[in-house]
Design goal:
Length: 263
């Protein structure tokens, strides 16, 4: 652990609990800006309700090991809370680890009067032949079978303590086994699946269900093999069954977004 990380940990451990979210806000201004966009640019609920949810997300990150930045989850929460009332479908999360993101998404989902359907093996990553080295920022990548495992009872408990479990539905199992049988309209989807093979499965089965005007996000835009999937025109046309859509952020951002064309 670096001196700076030790210093931050020491500061957080010695400050009153009520001040901790404020400390997190100050030290991550890009996360704060994303949170402000959620509070002031979304439509569901009131500004006061969205501000309360935004404030609540910081203790969730402290209570649960979360492998995302606040700005990533805020972007999806904004998309959920900005859905048109006539856009049909549930909210889908693919890959939840210990349920930190799920707890956050459940709060925005409840505010928007939607359901959150959570797909995960609850046993970690599947075996893979995908070849990984470094991400687009030069950081090492290492994805092994069983990594990021969060048992279903643990995930449910984390959401119950920190989110709104009443709006959640859980679909345990490997994506290739569970997603083919899912046929509900989807208003917004969030992928955090790490592997190119899993990304292909999610896009193949979830994108056709995405309502026109709905959004699909991927937290894996820093992974070259995942970028290749999003850029594969033949895959989109032959396996997904749609023309390759515009992918915001592909090749230069970690968080990717597709807004499904209305026409």
């Amino acid at each position: 652990m670096t001196i700076w990380k030790r210093t931050k940990t020491a500061i957080r451990n010695h400050m009153p609990e009520v001040v901790t979210p404020l400390f997190n806000i100050v030290r991550h201004p890009s996360d704060t800006l994303a949170g402000l966009r959620f509070v002031f640019s979304a439509d569901a609920g009131t500004i006061q309700q969205r501000a309360a949810i935004a404030w609540q997300t910081y203790p969730i990150s402290d209570a649960i090991d979360c492998r995302h930045r606040q700005r990533e989850t805020f972007a999806f929460m904004q998309a959920i809370a900005s859905l048109r009332a006539d856009t049909p479908g549930c909210i889908v999360e693919a890959g939840c680890f210990l349920g930190g993101s799920s707890a956050k998404f459940s709060l925005a989902t409840a505010l928007a009067n939607r359901r959150l359907v959570i797909f995960d093996s609850f046993a970690g990553l599947p075996p893979t032949d995908d070849d990984y080295d470094n991400d687009i920022f030069g950081h090492d990548l290492a994805f092994t079978s069983g990594k990021y495992a969060g048992a279903l009872p643990t995930v449910k408990n984390n959401i119950e303590l920190n989110g709104n479990i009443a709006v959640c539905e859980f679909v345990p199992g490997w994506f290739e086994d569970t997603m083919p049988g899912f046929d509900e309209p989807i208003a917004a989807a969030y992928l955090d699946v790490d592997l190119a093979s899993s990304t292909r499965t999610c896009l193949k089965y979830l994108y056709p269900l995405l309502s026109p005007g709905g959004s699909l996000f991927s937290q894996d835009g820093h992974i070259p093999a995942v970028i290749d999937v999003f850029n594969d025109t033949a895959f989109w046309e032959n396996e997904v069954g749609f023309p390759k859509p515009m992918v915001k952020g592909v090749g230069n951002q970690k968080l990717l977004q597709i807004i499904k064309p209305i026409d």
